[in-house]
Structure to design on (233 residues):
């Protein structure tokens, strides 16, 4: 048990290395968008969500309202609710307050490592502490470093740094697309977002398009089950 923290930290090393370029890119772009290094530090400490931080920084820079920023980042990170729910059956031996702390450290990457380990053996709270603290420390360090050096890179677009968020979303999207229904929802979300953006000011197009596309996906799935259509092929 006393080595569980070290075991978790070792399991986090690939994640920590993977966070370095994305975190650095966020720091560079965030400081270019007007955030201070202190802003970047506290955002990485308390928000700790790559895609949400990219979006929040861009929305803050564009003057978006607080409600719009909160709702957008909430929807982007809503998948963490499902991740926590699927991991909780393996954590029944851990007290609920500690589980709450563990859930804060869940990201796409730490979830993948944690759930894989939890399915093969009983993982202690120390294991998840090592996994999550090491991962988040890498994220904080890389974002702050990017912010500190951001002013030394006058044109991030020249190096493709401004494409980091888009690249990450494309990668996440492709990983999640497993059948025709997923493709349909993705196309609907993108198309609706573009159409709504023309008519609606601010960033509400993201929220509205996501809700409408999800509704379309659920409706199509229910309709296909009734008609026994092979949409999952």
């Amino acid at each position: 048990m006393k080595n569980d923290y070290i075991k978790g930290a070792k399991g986090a090393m690939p994640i920590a290395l993977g966070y370095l370029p994305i975190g650095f890119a966020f720091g560079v772009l965030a400081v270019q968008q007007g955030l201070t290094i202190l802003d970047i530090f506290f955002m990485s400490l308390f928000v700790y969500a790559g895609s949400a931080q990219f979006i929040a920084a861009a929305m803050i820079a564009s003057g978006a309202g607080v409600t719009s920023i909160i709702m957008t980042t909430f929807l982007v990170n809503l998948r963490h609710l499902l991740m926590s729910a699927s991991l909780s059956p393996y954590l029944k031996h851990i007290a609920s307050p500690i589980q709450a702390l563990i859930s804060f450290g869940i990201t796409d990457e730490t979830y993948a490592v944690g759930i894989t380990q939890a399915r093969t053996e009983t993982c202690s709270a120390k294991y998840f502490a090592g996994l999550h603290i090491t991962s988040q420390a890498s994220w904080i360090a890389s974002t702050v470093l990017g912010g500190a050096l951001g002013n030394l890179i006058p044109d991030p677009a020249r190096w493709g740094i401004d494409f980091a968020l888009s690249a990450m979303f494309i990668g996440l999207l492709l990983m999640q697309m497993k059948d025709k229904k997923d493709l349909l929802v993705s196309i609907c979300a993108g198309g609706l977002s573009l159409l709504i953006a023309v008519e609606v000011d601010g960033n509400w197009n993201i929220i509205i398009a996501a809700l409408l596309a999800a509704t379309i996906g659920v409706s199509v799935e229910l309709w296909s089950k009734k008609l026994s259509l092979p949409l999952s092929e």
User: Anything to note?
Assistant: Residues 77 and 94 are 24 Å apart (CA to CA). The chain has a mean pLDDT of 84.
